[in-house]
Amino acid sequence: MFPPEIQNFIDAFSKLPSIGPRMATRLSFFLASLPDHEQIQIQEALKGLERLDRCPRCFFVKSRTQKLCVFCADPKRDAHIVAIVEKDTDVFSIEKAGKFFGQYCVIGELDHRNPLGDIQKQRLQKLKNRIIEELNESPGEIIIALGPNTFGDFVSELIRQGFKGISVKITRLGRGIPTGGDIEFADEETLRNAFDGRR
Amino acid sequence: MFPPEIQNFIDAFSKLPSIGPRMATRLSFFLASLPDHEQIQIQEALKGLERLDRCPRCFFVKSRTQKLCVFCADPKRDAHIVAIVEKDTDVFSIEKAGKFFGQYCVIGELDHRNPLGDIQKQRLQKLKNRIIEELNESPGEIIIALGPNTFGDFVSELIRQGFKGISVKITRLGRGIPTGGDIEFADEETLRNAFDGRR
Fold it and tell me: CATH number of the domain that A189 lies in?
């Protein structure tokens, strides 16, 4: 019943997180009725994401044209304090809380069937090298900012073991975050408390 | 804090209906992390919408390469019965109900401050010509499928007046649809009842 262009759009966009077929349908009609220059603006915005890759130091997103991400490139960020997070969006939530001025290590989404997969191991190894090379004479701290739930506890313990023998303080976010919750959705005040109460 | 590509995406996509800044942020990271070929597939799906315009006869969306929309081009659809709807998505809901086999006139989204704007007037004029030219010897029916609320009643009355002197039966959808509701969100059963109970 729909022109193939609409059907294609619905098929492609209804696979995206939080967009079901119904929302994709409405979006398609809305977008189709926009004037050409606005459609092109939105196309360009989407196409821009192609020009992203990951920081070779902390694995947060960055433009391909930049050598490092904004945090690793910023001399005002404290390289002695590193927060280990799962996802880019966790970085976003932590930055909004405005309480943390260190740097990051984004280890990638965790899989319950394989708590530390190849990607996680590679990225943590990179962090280890970074600490050994850069922080050999200064104390340093790693804040494990994973969700305060059983799985997060388990993965944190694995990470701790992996850093055995390296002189670095390892902490976790304080239990300001409701147990069972998700870092990405924590409110800013809770996140601030969690940075204060880390132990 | 974000690469400009992410910020651009958030700015452009958070203006779309039902997508706020939070969802746009999550979408951007999700899309950025897709492999290139999947990103391109989604880009193409979006770009395809550019190839759409409106049927010159009923104003429903169609591919630019087609002369008429699927309904106007289909000889099995009854050209003597025309449903006047506001939006493309209303057509979608009505088709899903599987009860209506006539054709359409999509008059475009109504503005409460200007119930029949220029676009609506042009499209209704076109419908009038269509009825005079095509249905001069047969009875014909116009079903006004606007929302069953005060505003819809008002606009329906304006439309009725506009068709005075033309020998065509004018009906509205039966009150199966909850008063104050929206055609787009009516369930299929309610829409079927409404087609039965028109008067």
Answer: 3.40.1360.10
Is B132 touching A (CB cutoff 8 A)? no
Predicted confidence (pLDDT) per residue in B104-138, tens digit = 999 999 989 998 999 999 999 999 998 888 766 56
Which residues on adjacent β-strands are paired with residue A62?
A53
Tell me the average pLDDT across B142-164: 89
Tokens, residue B18: 């039902």
Its domain, for residue B93, covers 69-196
Give me the residues of B, 28-67, that contact A with CB < 8 A.
28-33, 36, 39-52, 61-63, 66
- Do A84 and A121 lie in one domain? The reply is yes
**Same structural domain, B112 and B185:** yes
Would you call B42 and A13 a contact, using CB atoms and an 8 Å cutoff?
yes
For chain A, how long is the longest CA-to-CA vector?
69
ipTM passes above 0.90: no
Of B1, B8, B52, which is closest to A3 when you measure between CB atoms? B52
CB half-sphere exposure, B39, CA atoms < 13 A: 20
Of all residues in chain B, the one with the smallest CA distance to A98 is: B1
* Confidence at residue B199, expressed as pLDDT on a 0 to 100 scale: 58
Cβ distance B141 to B171 under 8 Å? Answer: yes
Place of tokens 């799985």: A151
Query: Which tokens belong to A104?
Result: 């990051």
How many CB pairs lie under 8 A apart between chains A and B?
146
One domain for residues A79 and A14: no
B27 and B77 both lie in a single domain? no
Which H/E stretch holds residue B144?
strand B141-144
| CB contact A7 to B (< 8 Å) | no
By C-alpha distance, the chain B residue nearest A51 is B5
Q: Distance, in angstroms, between A73 CA and closest chain B CA?
A: 11
Closest alpha carbon within chain A to B4? A63
Cα B2 to the center of its chain, rounded Å: 38
> A119 with A67, same domain?
yes
The two structure tokens encoding residue B187? 């369930």
- Number of domains chain B is built from: 2
Chain A closest CA to B89's CA: distance in Å? 7
Assessment of whether the complete model's pTM goes beyond 0.90: no
Spatial CA neighbour of B129 closest among B74, B57, B63? B57
- Phi and psi of B82, rounded to 5°? -125, 125
Q: B142 falls in which pLDDT band (50, 70, 90)?
A: very high
